[in-house]
Specification:
The complex is a heterodimer. By secondary structure, chain A is α+β, with helices and mostly antiparallel strands. Helices cover about 30% and strands about 15% of the residues of chain A. The chains are: A alpha+beta, B alpha/beta. Chains A and B meet through strand 1, helix 1, helix 3, helix 5 and helix 7 of A and strand 1 of B.
Chain lengths: ~350, ~100
């Protein structure tokens, strides 16, 4: 096992100068970073029992190998605790998966961020937030793991905003975009178990994603009632011509109402798939689909995803409030799909 | 003496050997390959370019391939057929 660190080194007088140097070198996301000293980087790698030269991902179009050492350096800069590194590593593995298709979502004018959904026992022991203020600030694990992923994209893979990241608008999730599923309160099968892992395993799901869209229904006391509001909002969102994935985040009050009706995640997916379809005529009239409206377009329906399985349902968010959210994926079918990777707590 | 040393978080992309095929002196009689990226109107744009290359530059023929999607390189089948069947390739995007 190689233990030498191969990164170039820069000498500075103190912490303030180190932070300034990181700004000057263009290594930050615009916020100050924790200076990546050898001791901190080594602590990261040791916590995950990873050799520095371990190749975690290879980004084909950039011909860049992403090593554990470089992930650790960027995770230090992002403010991660050493024990978070396996989560960052699993997320980066996901970005390197051909099904995620790095080039498209990383560079596109569509401005996708990397949504990271953490499941399993590690999400709780590392204190990832799955509750109040789900997408907001305040939790070190959520804030720094997502930031580390973005710093790896920037510093290792070269996805620089304005150069190889050409997002027209982007969104705040590009700083960090990490949530956990509230498995403790959820009546449903956790996302990672639906995607092939065991409940006692921990996993991350990465999806190229737009920002979260919140919807509100304080009136309905049925699953169908709440999801009707969701579908009315979601029907016209993202690339309505057909996307790879959506995430639907069901928060506490809605979760209880939907579960009380006996609905499973599969029931939710089926309902949402069926009630978010648009007529070709509507898509043409609203400038989303090319061509003149033909009579048959009025009854020709297009779903927003290829199948109900492409809608990822996650139980998360605060216990109070009649709000839930949906998150459109990026681009179109066959371009980038959500990928779930096992988190290895220890490996060599 | 410096009190602190920090590690560089960046890497250089691996160097790739790139060899350019010599540009033809003329397009007269040449077979033109058109590779469209699936974006709206990219096929129309390339067909128009193909027509211009035939009418104004004397190209012999055009042939078009469609990539799997805009975010990936042209797939192996396109590359193999292009190697065998055309002299010049024009790739372009729509939107």
């Amino acid at each position: 096992m190689t233990t030498e660190l191969s990164s170039a080194r820069y000498a500075v007088d103190d912490l303030a100068q180190a932070m300034d140097l990181c700004f000057e070198k263009g290594w930050t996301d615009g916020l100050p970073v924790v200076p990546p000293t050898e001791a901190r980087v080594r602590a990261m790698l040791e916590a995950a029992e990873l050799a520095p030269d371990k190749e975690v991902a290879f980004i084909t179009n950039r011909q860049v190998a992403v090593t554990a050492e470089k992930i650790a350096v960027n995770a230090v800069m992002a403010g991660c605790k050493p024990e978070y590194l396996p989560v960052v590593v699993a997320a980066v593995e996901g970005l390197g998966d051909p099904r995620w298709g790095y080039h498209g979502p990383a560079t596109s004018t569509g401005g996708a961020a990397v949504l990271v959904i953490v499941n399993g026992p590690l999400s709780r022991s590392l204190d990832f937030n799955s509750g109040d203020n789900l997408f907001g600030p305040g939790w070190r694990a959520n804030a720094t793991v997502g930031r580390a992923v973005r710093l790896v994209m920037r510093n290792v893979i070269g996805t620089l905003p304005g150069a190889l990241d050409r997002g027209t608008l982007g969104h705040p999730g590009k700083y960090s975009y990490v949530i956990a599923e509230n498995e403790a309160d959820s009546p449903w099968t956790p996302l990672h178990v639906e995607r092939g892992f065991r409940p006692e395993q921990s996993a991350v799901t990465v999806m190229a994603a737009e920002s979260p869209h919140q919807f509100y229904n304080q009136l309905s006391s049925t699953a169908a009632g709440i999801l009707t509001t969701l579908c009315d909002d979601m029907r016209i969102s993202g690339n309505v011509m057909g996307q790879p994935n959506y995430v639907v985040v069901i928060a506490g009050e809605h979760m209880k109402t939907i579960a009380a009706d006996g609905w499973s995640k599969a029931d939710i997916r089926k309902f949402v798939f069926e009630h978010t379809q648009n007529s070709a005529a509507h898509l043409k009239r609203t400038g989303r689909m090319p061509g003149a409206v033909k009579p048959e377009d009025e009854t020709a329906l297009r779903p927003v995803v290829a199948s109900p399985e492409d809608i990822l349902v996650v139980a998360a968010g605060g216990r109070a409030g009649s709000f839930s959210a949906y998150i459109p994926g990026w681009a179109s079918r066959r371009t980038s799909e959500a990928v779930t990777k096992l988190i290895h707590e220890r490996r060599s | 003496m410096a009190r602190l040393e920090i590690l560089d978080p960046t890497v250089e992309a691996r160097k790739q050997p790139l060899t350019y095929v010599p540009r033809p002196d003329s397009l007269k009689g040449k077979r033109i390959g058109l590779v469209e990226n699936t974006k709206y109107n990219s096929d129309r744009l390339l067909l128009k370019i193909g027509e211009i290359l035939k009418e104004e530059y004397g190209a012999a023929e055009t042939r078009m391939w469609r990539k799997h999607n805009a975010g990936v390189p042209a797939h192996a089948e396109i590359l193999e057929e292009a190697k065998r069947g055309v002299d010049v390739v024009v790739a372009g995007i729509g939107d």
